[in-house]
Amino acid sequence: MSFKQEKQLAASRARVMKALAHPTRIFMVELLAKEKLSVGDLTDAVGADVSTVSKHLSQLKEVGILIAHKEGNRVLYSLICPCILDFIHCIDDIIFQDAEKGLSCVLPGAKIPQREIHISCE
Amino acid sequence: MSFKQEKQLAASRARVMKALAHPTRIFMVELLAKEKLSVGDLTDAVGADVSTVSKHLSQLKEVGILIAHKEGNRVLYSLICPCILDFIHCIDDIIFQDAEKGLSCVLPGAKIPQREIHISCE
DNA sequence: TGGTAATTTGGCAAAAACGCCAAATAGAGT
DNA sequence: ACTCTATTTGGCGTTTTTGCCAAATTACCA
To answer: Which residues in chain A have Cβ-Cβ distances shorter than 8 Å to B89?
Structure first.
C-alpha cells in the first residue's frame, strides 16, 4: 500500500473514530446496542437538547455506525455493527489499566460492566 | 450503575477514543504495533513537524495507549495494549461497509489489510 | 384542512483541537 | 564546559466541534 493510500486509510479510520469520540455519542451507541430507540427516547436518556441529540445521531449515521428508519411519526435508530461493542469494551481494558495506575478518571468504585467475549489486553 | 456513573464511564471512554480520533495518531499506533519507534522515526514516517508528533504521542500516552521509555538520547514509544489493533480493524469493517454503499471516502481500490482474528459485523 | 408531536436544519457564540514556530530541556560525545 | 542531536514545552493564530435557540419539515389525527 502506498504512502498516500495509508494516509487515506488512516483518515477514514479517524473519521469513524471521531464519530465515537464523544461521551453522549458513546452512551447512545451503548443504549442502541440493546434496542432500537427513537430520538425522543435517547433525548430523555441522555438529558440534552433534542436538536443536539439529533445532530449526534446524524454524525453516527453519517459514518455508518447507525441506521435510521421511520416508524410512523418517529425515527428509530439502531446499531448496524455490533462489533462496535467489542470495540468499546477494548477501550474499557485501557481505562481499567489506567485506573490501576491511578491515571484514569473513572469514578472510583465504578464497576466497568463485564463482557462475555474478552479480547484480552495481554 | 447510577446515571452519574454511566456518564462518567462514557466520558472516560470518550477520552480514550478521542486520543485515537486523528489520522496521524491512528497511523502511528499502527506503526507502533509492529515495533518500538522513536519520536524521530515516527516524524519521518508520518511527515509532520517534530513538535506536532511529540504532542500527538503525549496524548496517546496520557490515556494509556502508549508507553515511553528513554534509550540514550532518544525516547522510544510502544503500544501497551495490542487489542487496540482489533479495535482499529473493527472500524475497518465499518469503512468497508460504507465503501460498498458508496458512503465512504476510502481511496477506491485501496485494500484494507486483512486481519487474522475477525470480529464479524453481523 | 388545521393542529400537534417528532425530528431535522440553520445559525451563531463559546470551547476545544490543530499545527507551526521558537525556546527550553536532556543526553552523548569531544 | 561546549556542541550536537533528540525531544518536549509554551505560545498563538486558525480551524473544528459543541450546544443551544429558533425556524422549517414531516407525519399523524381530528
So the answer is: none
- Which residue has its C-alpha nearest to nucleotide C26's C1'? B73
Question: Where along chain B do its domains lie?
Answer: 3-79, 82-122
pLDDT per residue as tens digits for the range B58-96: 999 999 999 999 999 999 999 998 878 888 888 888 888
Place of cell 467475549: A117
Nearest residue in chain A measured CA to CA from B97: A64
Candidate from B14, B24, B87 with C-beta closest to A21: B14
Among A42-51, A61-70, A72-81, B109-118, the range scoring the smallest mean pLDDT is B109-118
* CATH architecture for residues A3-79: Orthogonal Bundle (1.10)
User: Distance of CA A28 to CAs A18, A41, A83, A90, B14, Å?
Assistant: 15, 10, 15, 17, 12
Q: How far is A122 from chain B (nearest CA, A)?
A: 7
Which residue type does B75 have? V
Within 8 A by CB and 6+ apart from B70, the residues are B76
Question: Which residues in B lie closer than 8 A to residue A23 (C-beta atoms)?
Answer: 7, 10-11, 13-14
Do residues A54 and A104 touch, judged by C-beta distance below 8 A? no
A16 shares contact with chain B (CB less than 8 Å): yes
**Three-state DSSP state, B18:** helix
